[in-house]
Design brief:
Distance between the termini: 25 Å
Radius of gyration: 20 Å
Structural class: alpha/beta
Mean pLDDT: 94
């Protein structure tokens, strides 16, 4: 099992499992932007040796200022964290809900954070027949039946790639519950302004929005994310945060990449071209491809093959290609895998490896 630690992108485990060097793998198990990191990251790294002897800014003022300008919100409405994972944990600990509703399948760390505080989970089961979309019926049923004081939702959701209609979030807020929206992949959505709830979170006492900076800018080695909420609520969250949570290198890189306007444009252009191409190629191989909007694809293995996600992951790993066993996500069975979207030459290699593995199964 490559997801030994609950995530994709674990090249060390892949080395142990397949007996080959980490750099020899084509990693489709994690969802980083293949165009990154942008040029500014290398410039920051080259200069950082002269700054490493200084403490980081405990208030992360430079990055918060840039984010406030980007989103048009108050700096006091932003807390920077050591990746989105830290912020998920902090907001759950701060709110300490007895019952949390999760729309599954979803990112497993939502449930992990709830279980750590001894909370209960109400599952809103999304249907593959509906492309795993959250709809008004499911929201209404959850409001009536769950007794949840907190809803945690991904938009776009991981692993389905589906956006959540902001009107559904409003319905949940109107019910009196708190809502945390994980927008870790929202940067990849050109129509971000239509779907992001960052500005609403800055003025609504029961809404929080979490953003990641590692996916879009391809800097997972630098743990960096932020949460938006009203200042009073964020003050309670900050009291739980470990001092010096965000190191100075992460702060400087965060400030630099926000200036990369051309990089963002290139990313949107790449995804608009490459995602449809890869979807078509995978459908021709017999995969059912979930209709999402992100830089990753949720696939269902052709049922007639009678091969599980873990078996396909093993076969692909032997070919030097890492994919995600999506049955590890709550709410999905052994017929689902997830793959990233990369550059054309990489995607061609992915398709070729799938063809080879599927042909072996059919023979």
């Amino acid at each position: 099992m490559l997801e030994r630690y609950g995530h994709g992108g674990d090249l060390h485990t892949a080395e142990e499992a397949f007996g080959r060097a980490a750099e020899s793998f084509l990693d489709y198990s994690s969802n980083m932007n293949p165009l990154g990191p942008p040029p500014s990251v290398k410039r920051v790294l080259a200069q950082y040796a002269e700054l490493i002897d200084r403490y980081p800014d405990p208030a992360v003022r430079g990055l918060r200022k840039k984010l406030s300008q980007l989103h048009g919100i108050d700096e006091q409405s932003i807390v920077i964290g050591n990746g989105a994972a830290e912020l998920i944990d902090l907001v759950v600990r701060s709110l300490h809900p007895q019952v949390t509703a999760l729309a599954i399948p979803c990112f497993d760390e939502y449930g992990d954070a709830v279980r750590k505080i001894g909370g209960s989970i109400y599952e809103i089961a999304l249907s593959g027949d509906n492309q795993f979309r959250l709809d008004s019926e499911a929201v209404g049923n959850a409001i009536d039946a769950s007794n949840a004081s907190l809803y945690m939702l991904g938009s776009p959701n991981n692993p389905t790639g589906q956006l959540v209609d902001p009107k559904l979030i409003k319905a949940l807020l109107d019910s009196g519950a708190y809502v945390v929206v994980d927008e870790a992949f929202m940067d990849f959505v050109p129509e971000e302004e239509q779907f992001s709830l960052v500005r609403e979170a800055a003025v609504n006492e029961r809404l929080f929005v979490i953003r990641s900076m590692t996916k879009f800018y391809s800097i997972p080695g630098i743990r960096l994310g932020y949460i938006v909420g009203i200042p009073k609520s964020l003050s309670a969250l900050k009291r739980l945060q470990v001092p010096w949570s965000v190191n100075s290198l992460a702060q400087l890189i965060g400030e630099a990449v926000l200036e990369e306007r051309e990089f963002a444009k290139q990313t949107h252009n790449w995804l608009a071209e490459e995602r449809p191409w890869l979807v078509q190629q995978l459908q021709q191989l017999g995969f059912e491809v979930n209709d999402g909007v992100t830089n990753y694809l949720l696939l269902r293995i052709p049922q007639q093959l009678r091969i599980s996600a873990s078996m396909l992951q093993l076969a692909m790993g032997k070919e030097g290609v890492l994919i995600r066993d999506a049955s590890r996500f709550p709410g999905l069975d052994h017929t689902y895998v997830r793959v990233a979207v990369k550059r054309r030459f990489q995607n061609e290699a992915l398709v070729a490896a799938f063809k080879h593995c599927l042909a072996q199964v059919r023979s």
